[in-house]
Design brief:
The protein is built from 18 helices and seven strands. It is an alpha/beta fold and 407 residues long. A five-stranded mixed beta sheet has the order 3-2-1-4-5. Strands 6-7 form a two-stranded antiparallel sheet.
Length: 407
Amino acid sequence: MLFVGDDWAEDHHDVEVQDETGRRLVKARLPEGLAGVTRLHELVGAYLDEDADPTEVVVGIETDRGPWVSALVAAGYQVIAVNPMAAARFRERYSTSGAKSDAGDAHALADMVRIDRHQLRAVAGDSDLTEAVKIVARSHQTLVWDRTRQVQRLRATLIESFPAAVAVFEDLDAADSLELLAKAPTPALARRLTIAQISAVLKRARRRDIAEKSRKIRAGFQAAQLPVRPLTAAAHGAVVRAQTTLIATLNTEIGLLGEQVDAHFGQHPDAEILLSQPGLGPILAARVLAEFGDDPTRYTHAKARKNYAGTSPITRASGKKTVVTARYARNDRLATALHQQAFSSLKASPGARAYYDQLRARGTGHHAALRQLANRLVGILHGCLKTHTPYREATAWPHTVTLDTAA
């Protein structure tokens, strides 16, 4: 067998090829792209028999995505995505001085997959459809996070210059809030708005009780507030107008990308099983599918899926001392989606609600109870995917709910 360490950068790769004894056969710096992959195949081919199986080549690299990784997987190599933190800890075996180089990292990666590959996870063999779902689902979530940041910045600006707007509008990213702030980004301009103008904006946003809400908004704008100097108010107004335009654009793109998430996810054969789970809608289910993947061999049992999800606890035992803590080294995108699912399932599933209530009755905090509920839901999802069976409330939650003592 051959073992390849690949330390990647934006425009090049430092690689080292070792044999089974750890002897360095060759090292090189390869360019990114087709020329680099072709050269890597030539280096590997020079030390393989003509009838050798490509799976006899094991590649360690600190990423699991991108055209380079896809090319290595397509070639039939065993590609192992090494966590950068684990690679850094492994590198400390060679030097305590902190010395580091790209060639040295490639050497450490080759040694790592040669010695410890049985404890490392190979790149998942997800389908092309799942990869497409991952791309659009992650991009959609990133845009939602970007909008949240922009809304918080808008709120901070309004608190300094126009606090009445923060009190009047419940959702600063709502269509009517953004349109009114764009029309009147300063207190002086807001006082000039008429009931008719406010009502027209609310009508376009399809609000209810338009007359009553218009009066409340106008009253809020007319309320007295501490004065702001004219030039300062004008500067803040320009910032507010720019921020509202940016948030409105993000709203539009989030909606369009959400349609793409729904369209791609709806084509997946596991979509029905995921949507049957309590608390999962199309967007949230697509995120769960994207982060778990659909490689049927990746999770050998429910515990492995729970560990990857970050919902299972960590036990630290030494001598007479045993401590159980939450798992924070995890896939944050997946953990966020599962936390939201657990919260939503409290209304969608009587069994989930009963499980949560029993945890709370034992003194468990809200977020800790949701984390344990998410852990239970991941196990249920694993069983449904393994047996290709939709979720059933009676099967998932028997009459007597047994609490997990370890959790």
